[in-house]
Design goal:
By secondary structure, the protein is mainly α. It has 2 domains: about 200 residues, no CATH class; about 200 residues, no CATH class. The chain has 15 helices and no strands.
Length: about 400
């Protein structure tokens, strides 16, 4: 655990990242409106294919190296940063090369030069990331969470607004792709100014601890990405495209809020736990606060689904309101597990999170296959029950000791 960390209120950091997520999603709506009015379906499809290929690889950027910097002890910080810097450069150049290779493979199969060009443009983001990732982790370690949230949110909002403008001025797939590359140097400059750092001569931390820690973190992110697609593939195969479309809309409406909140919670909580003198108490307080924030919202969202689903999606979507209501409630166990997962990472136990994530993914995929003949409501109900049992069950071994510690002793 670091010896010197500036304490920053967890709630303020959490709200900063929540606002960043809200701003990003709101700006995305502007893009949707602009694109719907100016671009044809074929152009949108080409851009969507390029973005899908790039976003799959984006899961591989979560490799735990930044978290090693945040959790490093003060006397090992510089050595850790030197090693992390090298790893960031090697990893990002590797992802850049891999994405170009994927683009080349797509071109070989489709002969679509435009799609290859778009994938290559998106790959350019990786060339800007490594020069600012150490500074980003150091800023988060130093408690500058509001600033890092503002920079991350500003990057997404800026790219989205530029996409909307380009979609109006020069409609075409490049309008959705180029802004992501143009926003990358803005993020880099902002991070380097927020927390200036330059590598100095000296010993480097051994790579082995990075690998032992990072493979599990990377595995978690990859399995999460697979989990988000596996149930949709099963439904598409067993129930057809129309039912898949219904489930896709219900899933996003029901769990979109939970996903954004869990991401904000994970980002804000890890540095908070690493800097806390009593991590058990910090975890307990964070979970109580997070559940107190999210539970009333998702319960209200669940009860109001029959009212807002027809308004948002239009006529003909009334049948998915019940599915949306059920999936909304899965936010609470997801938030509890997200908090416990960060506690495990702060204690260098991401392997536990990895195996729980695999178990959850296997169980939810099996639920989809088994419940498919009974309809989407049965799938959603099984999803809620299994997600609650597995996530809360996996969290209890961590939570119960911290709860016992908080109980007053009676003489």
């Amino acid at each position: 655990m670091p010896d010197v960390h500036r304490p920053v209120p967890f709630l303020r950091n959490l709200l900063a990242y929540c606002l960043s997520e809200v701003a990003a999603k709101a700006s995305r709506l502007v893009v949707v409106v602009a694109v719907a009015r100016t671009m044809d379906v074929a152009a949108i499809g080409v851009a969507a294919a390029a973005l899908a290929a790039a976003d799959i690889l984006k899961a591989l950027t979560e490799n735990g190296v930044g978290q090693r910097i945040i959790a490093a002890s003060e006397d090992r910080l510089e050595a850790t940063c030197r090693t992390a810097r090298r790893l960031f450069w090697v990893w990002c150049i590797g992802l850049f090369t891999l994405q170009l290779a994927i683009g080349a493979a797509v071109f070989a199969v489709t002969a679509d030069a435009q799609l290859f060009a778009l994938i290559a443009i998106l790959a350019g983001e990786y060339l800007f990331m490594p020069a600012g990732l150490v500074q980003c982790a150091l800023a988060m370690r130093d408690g500058k969470m509001k600033q890092t949230a503002a920079i991350a949110g500003g990057q997404v909002v800026g790219a989205n607004l530029l996409s909307a403008i380009l979609a109006v001025l020069v409609p075409g797939p490049v309008a959705l792709i180029l802004p992501r590359l143009l926003a990358a140097p803005v993020w880099l400059v902002a991070m380097r100014r927020l927390h200036p750092w330059q590598p100095t001569a000296g010993p480097r931390a051994p790579i082995a601890p990075f690998i032992r820690y990072g493979w599990a973190v990377l595995g978690v992110e990859v399995v999460k990405a697979l989990r988000l697609q596996a149930d949709k593939l099963v439904i598409g195969l067993l129930l057809g495209a129309e039912t898949l479309g219904l489930y896709f809309m219900a899933f996003n409406a029901g769990l979109g809020l939970a996903t954004s909140f869990s991401q904000a919670l994970a980002t804000a909580l890890f540095p908070h736990l690493c800097s806390a003198e009593n991590r058990a108490a910090a975890l307990r307080q964070a979970i109580v606060l997070s559940v107190a924030l999210i539970a009333p919202v998702v319960v209200l969202q669940a009860f109001a689904a029959p009212l807002y689903v027809p308004i948002l999606f239009g006529a003909g979507w009334d049948g998915i309101a019940e599915v949306v209501s059920i999936l909304c409630l899965a936010a609470v166990p997801a938030v509890i597990w997200s908090a416990v997962a960060q506690w495990l990472r702060s204690h260098e136990r991401p392997q536990v999170e990895f195996w729980v994530t695999i178990s959850l993914t296997a169980a939810l995929t099996a639920n989809t296959a088994l419940m498919a003949p009974h309809g989407l409501t049965a799938i959603a109900t099984g999803y809620l029950v299994l997600a609650t049992l597995i996530q809360v069950g996996a969290a209890l071994p961590v939570l119960l000791p911290s709860l016992r510690c908080s109980l007053p002793k009676v003489a």
